């Protein structure tokens, strides 16, 4: 029997599994899908915007202290400053170990160009993105591939110039790296693992770069051989090179997901995808097993402890219907959610306060156990973490990855200590 079954294979689930498996627990991850990293920028947003405000946060860990006092039910308020810092350092150390380093930044957000050239605050970025820091003075050359969909160098450069950054746009032909007329970002990144195609790209980039410029490219710079490609391009052009995230699918997010999953599995924790949970059994206030659908009869998964990392309403961990019903999809846990469907949304689509339904979720105690209206745990051996938790709007706050990392590690620690 496993000590812990983690339900969900996104950043939350993988970090929980890593923490528990590294401590020696027998862990298994089961999930319906691969999680949200495939759609993310591959950066770690801790707190980009204070709730209800549009001014970017400069120092997130300091701001979280004020946020925790003002909003004591926010997931960050369940941890102290040292726990937050230690959890983020754990992620940084792990990222270094798996070959995707995220340089430290002394508790300050950096501002990176978004896929349309807006300033995007984030806390941790890979080496492939950090050179795009908009606080740097070097002018930027934004290079696209003519015929590549969903990447617009002229728009990016125009918007950067409007914000006071010096940028210009240029194009290279798509057939430098692929013979296909229509390729998504993942296919292009896989293609650039080929040394011949990388060399062609490097030769043509060298012709475009002016002295003192840094080069921004779509985030397609290799999948399996990403680090080597970055070094080759920088050596060939004599310029700093950085990636700009594209519309999904996200190559940086897939790189991170793939590396994390492989590392977790090397620790002895299998990650099983396409496991759609259709039921569970509990006795004496403890979950005994969950069962997943198979082609024949349901498969039961037994464990001493279970952790929900299924995501919130945007991640599929919470569902709704036209009648106004809202439910957590695995255990049907109580939710902190507006009572009436008419209260799910504000009248304005882009309301500065966001929409109440996106702050709904599973309420937990300080041990990250889902609780009922009286504050007592629903099941003694069930834990929850990540964007499934109530009282935060991670997309609007730009806190999605931060909440995933710190709450999953904290929840896993409680499982470890309880064993």
Describe the structure.
By secondary structure, the protein is an alpha/beta fold. 30% of the residues lie in helices and 18% in strands. It is built from eleven helices and 15 strands. It has helices at 11-22, 60-70, 81-97, 127-130, 153-162, 185-191, 195-208, 226-237, 251-266, 394-397, 400-418; strands at residues 2-7, 27-30, 110-113, 119-122, 140-146, 167-173, 214-218, 241-244, 271-272, 277-283, 286-292, 299-308, 318-320, 326-328, 382-384. Strands 1, 2, 9, 10, 11, 12 and 15 form a seven-stranded mixed β-sheet that branches. Helix 7 (195-208) runs parallel beside helix 8 (226-237). The chain is globular. The protein starts with a strand and ends with a helix. The model has no long low-confidence stretch (mean pLDDT 94).
Strands, helices and their partners?
Layout lengths: L1 E6 L3 H12 L4 E4 L29 H11 L10 H17 L12 E4 L5 E4 L4 H4 L9 E7 L6 H10 L4 E7 L11 H7 L3 H14 L5 E5 L7 H12 L3 E4 L6 H16 L4 E2 L4 E7 L2 E7 L6 E10 L9 E3 L5 E3 L53 E3 L9 H4 L2 H19 L1
Parallel strand pairs: 1-2, 1-12, 2-9, 5-6, 5-7, 7-8, 12-15
Antiparallel strand pairs: 3-4, 10-11, 11-12, 13-14
Helix pairs in contact: 1-9, 1-11, 3-11, 7-8
